[in-house]
Amino acid sequence: MTQVHQLPLVGLLLCLLIPSHLCKICEISEEKKSYLNPLLRTMNNLKYTNGVEAANVLLSLRLAGFCSQDLEQKLIQKVKDYVIKKISDLSSGQLAWSIMALGACKTPNEMFIYEYNMVHVLENKFQEEIEHMDHALFVSSKYYNETECQKTLQTVLKEISQGAFNIPTAAAQILPALVGKTYLDVNKDSPCVYSSAVNISIPVSGSVTPATSPSLIKVHYSVKINKTYSTNVTVPSGSVFLDVMEEAQKQNKTIFGFTMKESSWGPYITSVQGIEANNNDRTYWEILNRGISLSQGVGSYIVHNGDYLEIRWSKY
Ligand SMILES: *[C@@H]1O[C@H](CO)[C@@H](O)[C@H](O)[C@H]1NC(C)=O
Ligand SMILES: *[C@@H]1O[C@H](CO)[C@@H](O)[C@H](O)[C@H]1NC(C)=O
Ligand SMILES: *[C@@H]1O[C@H](CO)[C@@H](O)[C@H](O)[C@H]1NC(C)=O
Ligand SMILES: *[C@@H]1O[C@H](CO)[C@@H](O)[C@H](O)[C@H]1NC(C)=O
Ligand SMILES: *[C@@H]1O[C@H](CO)[C@@H](O)[C@H](O)[C@H]1NC(C)=O
């Protein structure tokens, strides 16, 4: 995964940081709410969701009023584990997101925020980083034309149906805008709202499959550098690209060995066969199926039987 497919989202994401009258996507009407299902499904797929992503998803679902109690519990646990483990390493943004997510509505979790002194830690970090924020707010207001909010909504809904925003963080960031909320609407004193208004039927996926043994699927997998190295891999249905890579790595660590990093956009591949992607050389590890570049990351692309997967040393 690279910055490449994040770029078109940037304008919309900034929308969530500024007062809504400056940046208006029209609120989606009640009868069109089923258009949001792909976003909700993406956010429900927690298998490789890390702490930052969990915070994004939790805040978004709470703000939009689409959280179920069960999902909320799982997300809260992920965010707490993450904060406990990493509080000193988090950026102000990551920490702010965690605070907002945990405190977005009235629950016993507010205690957690104070126990860990999260707000104080945030103040210190924020001082160091504040210039960047100013810049972002300044840039955003010129992207939007109020009178065109319906057009923006149509565009966004079309993109959702085509599978854009199919990374949990992307889905989490667009959802509140579509129901007329921004992060300025976070109110720690309002009670948490639980909803089943929208049909959150989760696709069969590794994270939710019950104890019955999952069916297996077979995919072809190759690493392309200057030469192509291929193998066939069998994984449980519902597996994602990363599961295939791990399985191949077990077969032969020399040719399929890889390293990865966590980010708020999900895990991404840093090296394969010891060859590192490098911003200076504009190189990255591209993931493809049947020669077509995938817009999702290794942690979110759910593989299908017969997929012809490839990870390719590429330039952008
Ligand atoms: C917004 O868009 C409408 C229709 O495209 C156009 O007539 C109007 O001038 C635009 N307003 C601004 C402030 O750009
Ligand atoms: C929810 O989705 C499932 C599967 O797509 C469908 O069978 C069911 O009727 C839907 N329920 C509602 C309330 O729309
Ligand atoms: C691929 O081949 C080119 C030209 O032969 C060479 O310069 C480059 O270092 C090779 N790349 C890798 C990753 O082996
Ligand atoms: C993978 O399986 C296909 C048929 O299922 C076979 O043609 C191909 O040779 C296999 N590839 C490898 C690398 O084992
Ligand atoms: C891994 O692949 C390389 C190159 O094909 C081969 O030389 C090596 O023996 C393989 N290792 C294992 C453990 O199969």
UniProtKB/TrEMBL annotation:
Protein known as: Transcobalamin-1
Domain Transcobalamin-like C-terminal: 238-314
Keywords assigned: Cobalt, Cobalt transport, Ion transport, Secreted, Signal, Transport
Family to which this protein belongs: Belongs to the eukaryotic cobalamin transport proteins family.
Record has Ligase as a keyword: no
Sites where the protein binds cyanocob(III)alamin: Q173, Y268, I269, L294, Y316
NADP among keywords: no
Gene Ontology cellular component list: extracellular space
Organism from which the protein derives: Orycteropus afer afer
Compartments in which it is found: Secreted
GO molecular function: cobalamin binding
Gene responsible for this protein: TCN1
A GO biological-process term: cobalt ion transport
Signal sequence segment: 1-23
InterPro entries for the chain: Cbl-bd_prot, Cobalamin_Transport, Transcobalamin-like_C
